[in-house]
From TrEMBL:
SUPFAM superfamilies: Metallo-dependent phosphatases. SbcCD cleaves DNA hairpin structures. These structures can inhibit DNA replication and are intermediates in certain DNA recombination reactions. The complex acts as a 3'->5' double strand exonuclease that can open hairpins. It also has a 5' single-strand endonuclease activity. Belongs to the SbcD family. InterPro entries: Calcineurin-like_PHP, DNA_Repair-Maintenance_Comp, Metallo-depent_PP-like, Mre11_N, SbcD. One of its GO terms (molecular function) is exonuclease activity. Residues 1-239 form the Calcineurin-like phosphoesterase domain. This is Nuclease SbcCD subunit D. Pfam families: Metallophos. The gene is sbcD. It comes from Segatella sinensis. The lineage of its organism: Bacteria, Pseudomonadati, Bacteroidota, Bacteroidia, Bacteroidales. Keywords: DNA recombination, DNA replication, Endonuclease, Exonuclease, Hydrolase, Nuclease. Heterodimer of SbcC and SbcD.
Length: 435
């Protein structure tokens, strides 16, 4: 049995103002080629199909055209799609009744059922809500009748996971769902697809685009989960990687770099192959003798380039030489289908504003699109500012002259000390306010 896993398409995304739909079409064309070659039994897409909850008509057209092509190309393939944190769960699920007829299952919302009873947890109406786990448990069967169970978990928002700790609520949910699937389909292999932030995930230190909540409030710790699914494929984190402290869970990664901080990420899809054994009576079961994951690498249509790659200080002439040597020329003045996205790291003290404008013009003459100029300003040595001091306690702040504190704050904010006129104005203001 073959299963393709992918996530984080972000259809409708723009990169520094550049429409990426042609890039997404490039990837989806490549994905269709992999489907035609591998003939998988299932395609799993684990969230962030779109870049926002209200995607453009053009982005939705690309999405539905892909589904139409994929289901026509491989009619027996089961497509399972879950919502990510960027998606509108309800919008994604809206065509579910129609798409189900074409072997496309969509799970955006977690349904709940009302259970009548008299337990101590019941409210005054004599019942309580339970998750409808059955809706998230989807059997996938190949032409030989071999079966694998897919647990389709959309991004779980805090209003769904009603627990004192969001992270613990997610853990409880995943464990209960897995236990229910094993109870309902004993002996079958289980693949879970989810969209979440797992503890220990490697994310970009700067310019991260996954919308991670600071402080680890959304971190899910999978360590110590003995009865975990046989395999888990996840979306949300854009770097392809194993989930920390597991050998059975993995992020497939985004299909395109979402920021220059992701310049060196690898992109592609996972091909999961399961070999099935047989029971003594000769009946086929879901028990696997071999579980293999191959990475099918995809090269995005446009490369990301950061110039210079190191922290070298360049003169204007050296900048010209670097751009001419690193970037290809346009053909007949037109961008090719594989132009580069470029970011320049410019140290302010080496170049004037006119120099920077000339560099912009030079880049735009190449087979490249200039997306960003990162202006690097040398860090100011605060010890050179009169009145600056090392703060070790609250008393140091209380006993410090207000003017010294404000001068240091100004220097940190503007990376330059106050001039005499600014200092006099501030001093006069402090004097006036104290009267």
């Amino acid at each position: 049995m073959k299963i393709i896993a992918t996530s984080d398409w972000h259809l409708g995304n723009s990169f520094h103002g550049n429409d990426r739909l042609p890039e997404h079409k490039h990837f989806l064309k490549w994905l269709l080629e992999q489907i035609a070659e591998q003939k998988p039994d299932a395609l799993l897409i684990a969230g962030d199909i779109f870049d926002n909850g209200n995607p453009s008509a053009a982005a939705q057209t690309v999405y539905y055209e892909f589904l139409a092509d994929a289901t026509q190309l491989c009619p027996n393939m089961q497509v399972i799609i879950t919502a990510g944190n960027h998606d509108s769960a309800s919008r994604l699920e809206a065509p579910r009744p129609l798409l189900t007829r074409y072997h496309v299952e969509i799970r955006g919302n977690v349904r709940k059922i009302w259970l009548q009873g008299e337990s101590k947890d019941d409210d005054k109406t004599g019942g309580h809500w339970l998750y409808s786990f059955d809706d998230l448990i989807i059997p996938v069967t190949n032409e030989e009748g071999e079966e694998v169970i897919v647990l389709a978990v959309p991004f779980l928002r805090s209003d769904v996971v009603q627990n004192a700790s969001y992270s613990q609520g997610i853990n409880d949910f995943l464990r209960e769902l897995t236990a229910e699937a094993r109870k309902k389909y004993p002996g079958r292999k289980c693949i879970m697809m989810a969209h979440m932030y797992a503890k220990g995930s490697d994310i970009a230190k700067k310019d991260a685009s996954e919308k991670i909540i600071i402080g680890g409030q959304e971190e899910v710790d999978l360590e110590g989960w003995n009865d975990h699914p046989d395999y888990m494929t996840c979306g949300h984190i854009h770097k392809r990687q194993h989930i920390w402290n597991t050998d059975w869970a993995r992020y497939t990664g985004s299909i395109l770099p979402m920021s220059f901080a992701e310049k060196d990420y690898t992109h592609g899809i996972d091909l999961i192959t399961i070999e099935h054994g047989e029971e003594e009576e000769g009946k086929k079961t879901g028990k696997s003798k071999e579980w293999k994951v191959d990475f099918l690498k995809y090269k995005p249509q446009h490369s990301l380039r950061i110039l210079p790659e190191d922290e070298e200080e360049l003169t204007f002439k050296k900048w010209q030489k670097l751009i001419n040597s690193e970037l290809s020329e346009r053909i007949d003045g037109e961008l090719s289908d594989h132009f580069d996205y470029v970011m320049l790291k410019v140290k302010q003290e080496k170049l004037s504003s006119d120099d920077i404008k000339e560099l912009e013009k030079l880049v735009n003459e190449k087979d490249a699109v200039l997306c960003k100029i990162q202006r690097i300003i040398p860090q100011l040595d605060l010890s050179t500012i009169q009145g600056s001091q090392h703060i070790t306690s609250i008393e140091d702040i209380i006993n410090r002259p207000p003017l010294d504190t404000l001068k240091e704050a100004f220097a940190i904010r503007h990376n330059a000390p106050m001039n005499e006129r600014q200092e006099k104005m501030l001093s006069d203001l402090l004097t006036t306010s104290s009267l």
